[in-house]
Amino acid sequence: MDTATVQRFLDGMKYEAERTGPPADFPQLADIPGGRYVEHEFLQLEREFLWKRSWLYICHVDELSQPGSFLLTRKTGSPIIVVRGKDDVIRAFYNTCRHRGGPIVKADNGCSDGFVCGYHGWTYTLEGKLINLRDKRDFVGLDMQARSLVQVRCERFYNWVFINEDPQAQPLEEHFAPFIEYFRQFQPLQWRFVMQEGFDVKCNVKVLMDAFLEVYHLKSIHTNTVDRFLDHRGTTIALYRNGHSLMVTPNRRPDWVDPGTRGMPRVETATVVSAKNNPSFNFFPNLVTPVDPTGAPFLLFWPTSDTTMRIECHWFAPDWGGGPIPDLWNVRIANFDRILAEDLQFAEAIQQSMMSAGFTGMPLNYQERRIYHWHEELDRRVGVERVPERLRVKPLLARYCEN
Ligand code: FES
Ligand SMILES: [Fe+2]
């Protein structure tokens, strides 16, 4: 990260801490219509135009450690295999046999030399090519080359693998460009996969996402945890094109170190913005990561129905030199889970409120503008003309986007 950008965030935190109100030219944000969280018709649009057409994080390359390693995901709503080929390239395919749609793999993960459909035995390479089928004599003129597994876009952000069901999607490198630059300071190619865990929550996916896009709630629900070490009043925010955003929150004391990270290997090239403050990224739509020079969780927010979701935490850290994960991690993750439990406590009650006549919409303040920015992008992805007028979000923040 260049010195000008470092300075932009340092100045930003100072400005936010000292201001007496929002900047004079900052617009009054319109209410977010409540129906965007509960109306089935709207959530169907979201499924089709957001979840099926976005870059979504699936795994770290460590989780596909050798040629033939694969995993099966249904996160986008379709069954998709992500597999490391013999050529070490990681690809994604629909888990859908080109004969009559039989599943190519049945296990959630594993390692294989190739794929044999369980239904009638059509055989594919790890690269998706159809190479054999039973009783070929009865498939007169079948063009096997045209029956390869259907590929899904699969690209990497450093060693993190993302998929996108939209064949026309913008290349991942362009899409996440500001974050590629920002992450370089962490030497992310040296980072390793630590562990993952997940929790089912009874709320619409956006209810919980929203909580991770602002720090306005710290004083109420993280009184004895995060609020002790982070000063939410100094949070500076950068909004980027494509719905992405970043907030950097200053530590209350500049020399503060998270006790859970003491003794862990630390990236020495991290700038002061990341080493002495708390940056948290939103890779639109559903990846939030607060990055520390000693490691980071990728928090993933997945809809499981209109009214339920699953949050996953995938942990990564600078290489600890091989071998099993150091014991220190148990304490660090336990600390984090305690904070996460604080964040989850109101989710179900909020969902119930949203489904009642008591909830009409959400007024957002200046500190909550990342949520507004997220919703604006959702309408752009869906196509505003498809969104019923009463559920639209008025575009207001484009001119605040940074390059
Ligand atoms: S469905 Fe796969 S071989 Fe028939
Ligand atoms: Fe929180």
User: Major beta sheet, specifics?
Assistant: 8 strands, mixed
Rg, Å, rounded:
23 Å
CATH architectural group of the largest domain: Alpha-Beta Complex
**Contiguous runs where pLDDT drops below 50 for at least 5 residues:** none
Tally of helical runs: 12
Strand content: 25-35%
Backbone shape: globular
What gap, in angstroms, lies between the N and C termini? 14 Å
Number of strands: 20
**Portion of residues within helices:** 25-40%
Named once each, the bound ligands are: FE2/S2 (inorganic) cluster, fe (ii) ion
Main sheet strand line-up = 12-18-17-16-15-14-13-20
By secondary-structure content and strand pairing, the structural class works out as alpha+beta
The domain count comes to 2
| Fourth-tier CATH superfamily name of the largest domain | Naphthalene 1,2-dioxygenase Alpha Subunit, Chain A, domain 1
| CATH fold-level label of the largest domain | Naphthalene 1,2-dioxygenase Alpha Subunit, Chain A, domain 1
- The average pLDDT value, as a whole number, equals 97
CATH class descriptor name of the largest domain: Alpha Beta
